Amino acid sequence: MAHLVGAERVRFETPTRVILDELSLGLETGDRIGVVGRNGEGKSTLLGVLAGTRQPDAGRVTARNGVRIGVLDQADRLAPGTVLQAVVGDRPEHEWAGDRRVREVLSGLLHGVDPDADVESLSGGQRRRVALAALLTGDADVLLLDEPTNHLDIEGVRWLAAHLDDRWPAGQGALVVVSHDRWFLDAVCTRMWEVHDRVVDAFEGGYAAYVLQRLERDRQARSMEERRQNLLRKELAWLRRGAPARTSKPKFRIEAANELIADVPPPRDGVQLHSMAVARLGRDVVDLVDASAGYGGAPVLEHVEWRIAPGERTGILGRNGAGKSTLLGLVDGTIAPTAGRVKQGKTVRVRRLTQQLDELADVAGDRVLDVIGRLRTGYRVGDAELAPGQLLERLGFPSAQLSTRVGELSGGWKRRLQLLLVLLDGPNVLILDEPTNDLDTDMLTAMEDVLDTWPGTLIVVSHDRYLIERVTDQQYAVAGGRLRHLPGGVDEYLSLEDAETVVVPDAQAVAGPSLSGSERRDLEKQLASLDRRMQRLATETRADHDALAAHDQSDYVGLEAIAGRIRDREEERETLELEWLEAAERLESA
């Protein structure tokens, strides 16, 4: 391994507090590091210091000569121009179209985005994806990514994880990523950094490994409060009893972890929660019977059959624009069906946690504890009756935040307060629409703990695979205007996506005006074959260049032989690129 970037005794402070102090760490080739920590602890600051965009107040940051550092921050700054110009710059079409990496990034991140659209016309989510695409088409030796999964759907997150896994050969390049997506961290990272209390602690393995090691560290140190240890024990029990893949990355002994959770019950008592839900709801919750919905005469959902039972915990999956929000509108009554019917039980009380924070605008000048105290004097969590202050603590609010005005809270704290207000309103059907926005991993763990003991019907729409698998017991997919049950969960959904059986496009759009299905498949196979051949040629050409540089410079015959191989391969590559472009044009125009 070779040193790439290092920080030595770095200190970074703001006018009100010190963020990092006496920090020393380094990046080496092959590093794949995930960064976690509470909001405000300094995760983004750490990336900025390593990138050189933020200057430390003390200490120094060094980089090896010639190291290229690529940064994705949360500003999404894009130069004026079209989407395609933002991603590939001024490169001619034959050049970028023949670049396998560029083609993969464009198809993986910018599906549905008009390449000729002006960047100023894009939504925030589209700008984020364009900024990420522009970064990934480059040749950076080090990638520093701040929340790269924001605005990506579950397929996009999977694509990004696969891309980062394959981006560099083993032992080359380096990645540092800040993310609250715990599945993504487990899929990509082999080490974790936790930023807290001005320092950075390092852990081997992905997120699952981090949870195990952090619990053991806290248990031995006995410096963490009992509430957090209980939360981590519950999540640890779920991690160890869940899918085997979640524990495949840890690189340390887990015997002690097994002892820690030997007597820990499952995160949820499903039988008890179902019984409580029936008592609160009765037998009838919400029935969608042959229901259809659309806008302006254009159908979005058609012939949906869904009978929601008391106590069900359901995750909804689907691409952006597939109709998930329309489905939620049918369930909560804000959207009327254009055909069929929607029937709500007489005792049903639906509340929906939206992606906006508009409901907090009216109480922006009030203090947090006053807002909570006006709603209810108590809240039942499992068998315990909690006062508002206790529930705030359960959700991780420190005492210092209770006297803070709502308008002065950060996005993450507002999101947590928003959930609390929804729960205190006493719903028995709870809909969470992308609830992970603005939440760090500690906040997500606290939210999941409260949801574990919430006795009602829960519906979650999220691109966060970890959350879906953690808090729901069954999953459905919205695709092609229909609702489909997924007995195999997220893995089944992704498999169906790969087989193109979840998304059902118009038959004419698939076949095209001039290609049969078999002809289209043959073209796709041809493109894949050409990709592989060009990739092999690129590898062989790089090896020839290395051999040319290492060869005895006085051996003219040997040098000419190597140079001849390079010329032959370049000519073959140009021929293959032309074949690829012709096949791609046929496929696109069909």
TrEMBL record:
<feature type="domain" description="ABC transporter">
    <location>
        <begin position="286"/>
        <end position="505"/>
    </location>
</feature>
<dbReference type="InterPro" id="IPR017871">
    <property type="entry name" value="ABC_transporter-like_CS"/>
</dbReference>
<feature type="domain" description="ABC transporter">
    <location>
        <begin position="5"/>
        <end position="229"/>
    </location>
</feature>
<dbReference type="InterPro" id="IPR032781">
    <property type="entry name" value="ABC_tran_Xtn"/>
</dbReference>
<dbReference type="InterPro" id="IPR027417">
    <property type="entry name" value="P-loop_NTPase"/>
</dbReference>
<keyword id="KW-0547">Nucleotide-binding</keyword>
<dbReference type="GO" id="GO:0016887">
    <property type="term" value="F:ATP hydrolysis activity"/>
</dbReference>
<dbReference type="Pfam" id="PF12848">
    <property type="entry name" value="ABC_tran_Xtn"/>
</dbReference>
<dbReference type="GO" id="GO:0005524">
    <property type="term" value="F:ATP binding"/>
</dbReference>
<dbReference type="InterPro" id="IPR003439">
    <property type="entry name" value="ABC_transporter-like_ATP-bd"/>
</dbReference>
<keyword id="KW-0067">ATP-binding</keyword>
<dbReference type="Pfam" id="PF00005">
    <property type="entry name" value="ABC_tran"/>
</dbReference>
<feature type="coiled-coil region">
    <location>
        <begin position="520"/>
        <end position="579"/>
    </location>
</feature>
<dbReference type="InterPro" id="IPR051309">
    <property type="entry name" value="ABCF_ATPase"/>
</dbReference>
<keyword id="KW-0175">Coiled coil</keyword>
<protein>
    <submittedName>
        <fullName>ABC transporter ATP-binding protein</fullName>
    </submittedName>
</protein>
<dbReference type="InterPro" id="IPR003593">
    <property type="entry name" value="AAA+_ATPase"/>
</dbReference>
